Amino acid sequence: MLKPLLDFEKPIAELDTLIEELKRSAANDERRKAAEHDNVDIESEISRVEERRDKVMREVFANLTPWNRVQMARHPMRPYTLDYINAICTNFVELHGDRIGADDPAIVGGFCQLNGQTIMAIGHQKGRDLKERQHRNFGSARPSGFRKALRLMQLAARFRKPIVTFIDTPAAEANLMAEEEGISRAIAYNIQQMFHLEVPIVVAVIGEGGSGGALGIAVGDRVIMMEHSIYSVIPPESCAAILSEFGRDRGRASDAAAALKLTAQHALQFHIADSIVSEPLGGAHRDPIAAARVLGNAIAAELKELASVPTPVLLDARYKRYRSIGSWEEIEREALIVPVPADHVEGPMP
Amino acid sequence: MLKPLLDFEKPIAELDTLIEELKRSAANDERRKAAEHDNVDIESEISRVEERRDKVMREVFANLTPWNRVQMARHPMRPYTLDYINAICTNFVELHGDRIGADDPAIVGGFCQLNGQTIMAIGHQKGRDLKERQHRNFGSARPSGFRKALRLMQLAARFRKPIVTFIDTPAAEANLMAEEEGISRAIAYNIQQMFHLEVPIVVAVIGEGGSGGALGIAVGDRVIMMEHSIYSVIPPESCAAILSEFGRDRGRASDAAAALKLTAQHALQFHIADSIVSEPLGGAHRDPIAAARVLGNAIAAELKELASVPTPVLLDARYKRYRSIGSWEEIEREALIVPVPADHVEGPMP
Amino acid sequence: MRAKSRWFTKPSGRNGSAVTNMPEGLWVKCPRCAEIHFAKDIERNLRICTKCDYHYRLHAYERIDLTVDEGSFVKINDDVMSVDPLGFPGYPEKLARAISSTGLTDAVVCGEALIDGRRCVISAADFDFLGGSMGSAVGERLVRAMELSVELRIPFVLFTANGGGARMFEGLYSLMQMAKTSAGLAKMERAAVPYIVVLTDPTMAGVYASYASLGDIILAEPGALIGFAGRRVGNQDMGMKLPDDFQSSEFQFRCGMVDQIVHRRELRSTLATLLMLLAEEGSDVKTSA
Amino acid sequence: MRAKSRWFTKPSGRNGSAVTNMPEGLWVKCPRCAEIHFAKDIERNLRICTKCDYHYRLHAYERIDLTVDEGSFVKINDDVMSVDPLGFPGYPEKLARAISSTGLTDAVVCGEALIDGRRCVISAADFDFLGGSMGSAVGERLVRAMELSVELRIPFVLFTANGGGARMFEGLYSLMQMAKTSAGLAKMERAAVPYIVVLTDPTMAGVYASYASLGDIILAEPGALIGFAGRRVGNQDMGMKLPDDFQSSEFQFRCGMVDQIVHRRELRSTLATLLMLLAEEGSDVKTSA
Ligand SMILES: [Zn+2]
Ligand SMILES: [Zn+2]
Fold first, then answer.
1. Of the residues A57, A62, A219, B56, which has the maximum number of CB atoms within 10 A of its CB?
2. pLDDT tens digits in sequence order for chain D, 289 residues long
3. Nearest CA in chain B to C153
């Protein structure tokens, strides 16, 4: 089966294929002898191609556009929440159900151990193959998913177990049934109640941080973003489709992606993310175990730091963290002029 | 339109009709003159019939069977929750919805004032005519009804407003949808959470206290029962249909009603009700305003008493109240014999 | 482009509002029943169609005028202004246009006021200001209003009409205003200070999925558009027939999200009753207007 | 009638249980797949059908034996006995019969035990004792178990099998055991002591509508009957087709009421893992059995 590839991964994949072929030759006595006969050193040839591959990879990944980041965040081979939980944690016991009427497979959660400490791990869950994707509703949570998540978070808080959430959703479900079951209220209530949880919360954005659907489980004391994850108020396609600036054309999603400043690097710059976890060269899916190890260490380090914070201080800091987010200015009445930033001013300043 | 009547109300109703006719005559000049001509004093005739009617009524109501009490509790003319709220309270603002997916008309609730004090009034609501009865699901609450009630109770607790609940339900809804939406969990969760509510709760059983469907909003610091209300673990019809002692015959519901000891007077005797509110002679429906006044005063008196109890004491007393309910005995190993009460023992005691 | 205009117009309404939303001209055609009315008749009828009861949208100051005791409104937070943190194409121009056309400094107006003699903090959004959308300035204004409510221990009454949801021109900052306003409401919840929401036409997306859904009590005007995702999105994704009243006040009421649908004519008295009922024990003294 | 028999039989199981539920005779027919098995084979297979995986009901002590560390079970509350508070026709006789036929003193057995070295309070119901129904004695036993959990700060693990719900022979007293047990669980909730429920066949009515639904974590054995009202009642009232798995573990799982359906073979290890995960910080020391 061919692995799905992004366009800019193709030159890398070609070299990967070449390396694999060379390795197969090296393992094949006959071919090996033939190569020796031709004075070809397969080992050094492999090293040479690997170097070239890594160089290409470095170049490609040094020049990712915001749209490329969106593609990386949505990469079909990217590790998902359960991949990380299984790699980072032990003794995961998945807990199900909202105790109201449903169990939403688009959000998973349960108790497990990280470095010997019990945590509550919760995250959006996408599916790998078509069947599982549909089962998981592409990671778009329904109201019952948010309610299950809140139930589990409150359970964890009662038993004083810290909470780790994994964010990876295109958006919350928005169909008729979601509306009937109060998707807006479910998200809003989660966000509000997360400010009351008396345990540390670490949020890890591992893929798509899709607007309210992400935020519904993403209020935390620390927000970690994977290098190739994104966090956005609106999918760039929808943004492009709405705004005349992008010709109301979904095809111009890449322009919208650039305008929205939705990359992990921007979130860090805006002080909405606290740190970025580097991914293996080429992205987490090229080496999921290594990616998980680095993320796991980052989460553990944050949890360790938060463990010593007294609960009232923790809750107060959480409040202040979100209370202070925003970019605005306070203007004296007399100075009231339209606040146009310098690079949008036409003509000389007065 | 003929008012619905119970069998044992018929002799009373006949006299009522006669009194009404006499009064019409008294108000009619022509007939009055005819009566005077015949030396009949209509006024004293009215008094005489009224006295007889009251005597019959006293006799009938002094000899109600448990089954008659069940009939009274279910009387189609009996005042319902909203009748009491409207009679007792002012400024009632009904609040709707469980914030999850539905608003259940079988439970109503909202803020209002009782003697100038804000309370949260909540109750099962039956319907008077066929259409409203169906709309109210005959007072059988769905999971969303219990969830709405809990939301309102928690709202009241946050704003430190006491809670008054009115109990009048045959049972909780038990159909497929109720099961799917977790009717059992909804009831259980309400019961549990009511032990956390940091405000006084007064429960008034006004009609049918139907098992779990009643208890789901009936955990309180005081339980008042109307004279002709009942409180039962199972409808007597179902009890009769299940047990061979009653020939597994729904028709023997009256025997089951007697065995179940489900009247207000029994509940008082079992220390499950704290007091009984007397109803006007003939039942609350003969004078709903008077009935409401007495109930209102009883509730207000309980609230006044509870207002001065410090919250931790209140919650502790509520716990102890329910923790101590039950009839059992602790038997030393050596003394282990089947605990058969005296009136069931056959033959002479040893 | 550099806007030269000052964006606050001379106050003319009862509470210092600029009357801007009166339909232009003598006649007005009802968007629901298509009846032609004298504009004056609609105006006199609280902006409700005299034939089909359609509730026209109100501007923020019109809303406040209809709700609070005359002369009691004291504006707050009005100097918290939006900036363009992302350098988003077209945003500064849109902002300038909204400011000059509405006479407002951003999409919500906040203040302190009396309703039937009872103190409260009040806020109203204006759909004509970028669809009433929530950017950083809106978030900051609302949180300040909430904090004032907590400080004074007086209820916060909020009218929505934030059809635009989060203001995407501010990217992640605008998304985070959902968390910011909800943080403020968590604080109100802990302080047990009442928060009453009135959902008005239209209330969508990031606003409905944050502070608009979190009222201790949630009222709605009849027939308002209230929902999560745009109707088109819903249609597309579902391939199923939507109910006629999808995403209306009535739909949300049926789904248990709304306490009461209140006719505009009853709104002020309902709010007054609620403020009376929710007054703290011992503090239930009306302030004379 | 006056029962003369003592109702406790000589302990014979690992934890002092009377082995009573082994199908009589050499052969046993599976109630689900109708396959005829050697009784010994079923017994060896934890009372699970070797063909269709049907989970036979277990007696209280069999359940405890399967769950706790050998020899660790210490019975409590066993002397709390039912009386006949209402003088209900036939109740004393039924009680006497249940006692002598099961060898139990009432429908639930409670105790302290170790599961994989971790202390807990444990309780198991026995369907053969008046359908496992909840009377005053059951309520008292369970609340004492909860209070012990709180006192010792160790989890409470409860197995249901209370098909009978509330024990109607005790009238209002039995109904009130729903409130009494829920009160105990409110206390556990406030004390933040874990409460783990395992729903087993059958769990209905007043039991499911009180403590059986209130687990912090709720597990269920496959194929158990779990629901509110009897199937007939449901059918009657609805006049609609019920799903094939109506009121099964799987149905309740689908409806979000159950955390996990756990095969009997995995139950002990799942409980052990949960007790390990839920151990309080600093107290996570296993006691050697
Ligand atoms: Zn019209
Ligand atoms: Zn079988």
1. A219
2. 333 332 333 333 444 343 334 456 788 888 889 888 888 888 889 999 988 999 989 999 999 999 999 999 999 988 999 999 999 999 999 999 999 999 999 999 999 999 999 999 999 999 999 999 999 999 999 999 999 999 999 999 999 988 889 999 999 999 999 999 999 999 999 999 999 999 999 999 999 999 999 999 999 999 999 999 875 544 444 556 788 889 999 999 999 999 999 999 999 999 999 999 999 876 655 654 4
3. B159
> Under 8 Å CB-to-CB from C200, ≥6 apart: which residues?
C55, C57, C58, C63, C159, C160, C161, C220, C221, C224
Residue D270: name the closest of A148, A154, A94 by CA: A94
CA distance B161 to B153: 9
Question: Would you call B182 an interface residue with chain A, using a CB distance cutoff of 8 Å?
Answer: yes
Q: Which residues pair with A165 in a beta bridge?
A: A122, A203
Please give the domain boundaries of chain D with CATH numbers for all domains.
1-56 (no CATH), 58-278 (3.90.226.10)
Give C107's DSSP letter.
Answer: S
Gap between the Cα atoms of A125 and A138, Å rounded? 8
State how far the Cα of B45 lies from the Cα of D20, in Å rounded to an integer: 76
Count how many Cα atoms sit within 13 Å of the Cα of residue C151 in the half-sphere of its side chain: 8
Which of the following CATH numbers is that of domain A71-323: 3.90.226.10, 3.40.50.300, 3.30.70.1070, 3.40.50.10900? Answer: 3.90.226.10
Record the tokens describing residue D181, joined without a space.
Answer: 């047990």
C1 → closest Cβ in A183, A245, A346:
A346
Amino acid making up residue B173: E
CB contact under 8 A, B96 and C260: yes
Report the chain B residue with the minimal C-alpha distance to residue A189. B99
Whether A145 has its CB under 8 Å from any CB of chain B: the answer is no
Q: Token digits for C153?
A: 């221990």
Interface pTM, i.e. ipTM? 0.91
Rounded CA gap, D174 and D206, in Å? 9
> Tokens 């020391």, residue?
D285
Reported as type and span, the H/E element at residue D280 is none
* D172 has a chain A CB within 8 A of its CB: no
- Which amino acid, B336? L
Using a CB–CB cutoff of 8 Å, tell me whether A181 touches chain B. Answer: yes
Nearest to C116 by CA among C274, C230, C282, C238: C274
Tell me the one-letter amino acid at C240.
Answer: M
Fill in the DSSP letter of residue D155.
Answer: -
